[in-house]
Description:
This is Glycosyltransferase RgtA/B/C/D-like domain-containing protein. This protein has 561 residues and is α+β, with helices and mostly antiparallel strands. The chain contains 26 helices and twelve strands.
Amino acid sequence: MKKKLLDTINISSVFRYNRNQLLVCLISVSYALLLLSGVISTIIHKPKDTVNMMVGHYYEDYYEYLSFIKQGQEGNIFLQNLFTSDDRSKLFIPWWSYSVIGLISLILPNNSTVYSYWFASFILLSLTFILTYKIVSVLMQNRAFPEKIITFLLIVFSSSFYLIKFTPKFEVLPFDYWFSQGSPFSRYNMGTPHHEFAQLIFLLSILLTIRIINVKNIWLKYGVFFVTLCVLFFCASSQLILFSLAFISAYIVSINTNRERVMSFNLFDSSRIIPYLFVFLAIAPIAYLINKYFQSSPTYLSVRNWDITHYYYPSIAQFVQSFGPLFLLGLAGAYRYFAKLSFPRLFLFFISFYTVFISLIPVNIAGTNILSLIGIHNLRINTSVAYIFFGIGTVELFKMISKKCIVFYALAGILFLFYTLSFHIYWKQAVDLPRQSGYLQYMPKIMYDGIKTLEKDKSGKVVLASPKSSLGLAIPAISGHRVYFGRSIFTLDFDEKLRKANKIYNFEIDTKEVNKLLIEENIGYVVVTFVDNDLASWNKRYPFLKPVYTNSNLTILAPSI
């Protein structure tokens, strides 16, 4: 009888566990769809005779990422910058995830670069939310499921403070700044799969580290730890900095703190971190060799230089306003968070601490920002993981001030209502974003088909498109062809190339100079659209350029041999 009762209890527990996990998965998938709803809505509003390019992110970045997926679909693991004619170096970090998306998309029924991009984003977002809940569950393992799920929801829906104006019209103005994470759309990198992938890898690394920290088999423990660091380096190098600082700090504090939460430094106990330090040092040669290889890539150096010239240190007030109420409430509940001191809780705390510290305070050595040596700006360190610490702290505070469940749920409900207004504003911005991209969003089908014809030519010839048309962005993504100039920070010597292109399209350069430029830059095609001079004028000005494709929207010219 007792055995039957135990079996019934076990079955009931398993059923309840599975039901809870299913709910988490449903919430994660639904929320991912909500964040992507602005892009999804473009399908409904697509005009007739156009191709929906689904621009749900800043359009220059977006077309850059599509060009990487296109290269993956052509079987390339290592990627090239197709937005310049004078750099053929091959890159792996940090965009290699796009080549993988491209390769995987080949097995899908519709292997469009656009659909592959957004399907990958949806999967990565859903998994990110599931892993976020998993970390919450590990850190609140003795708490009931309702508390865990409310913590999870407070974290993923967290939004910034906002100002409400009633005159001259009613407006809700969320506090925000460049690269802030106050908006859930920004925090979860909606529309940038390589950042979403890095975020996912970071969450996995945290979970894995928490799992292996107490494993007794040292070969297994340090082996897995080494692999984790390598994966972080290749997939989430910015987060590796946070991971390293937080791990070392949390480990030293945890082994020197007793059950009464009193810390007393012990040299013998502290020496237990030495094997981990050797593991950290073991990846240094790999990092050095990879970095040395990238130093030979003009594209990589251009991106690196862009980053280290774009530091932005918000004031504490700006940071708190953008972070939102979760920051203040989480700090107020931090005492309860540390009531159960453990390595996992310390690890998450230090990740959050260093996130805030590096975001706000420049660390200079001999007048040089230390992050410039790594090649990133300070806000690259920002991570959504910090919200987990503040979310748990908030729930701890609510539990402390509410003796009854109804009060706890009421406090959580009030916070959700507060989020609603700013979330609505951010959602409207996401819905409006595609409309700001002109025909790079809804491209005329005949224009798209014309660009697509370039796909047949595998000679590696460079394509020249006019500055007015902005097709220098779209051609690599649609056809996989290299262009003379396109993405501004990816086109080497952009201003000079822009000047020369304008001269050609404005007929301000003679035939000999044009011919010389085409030969020097290996330009095999010149694309003329409805925004440029008419075809008759081109034939008269540059008679050696002959049409190889033409429709009412676009003409592709090629030098006659």
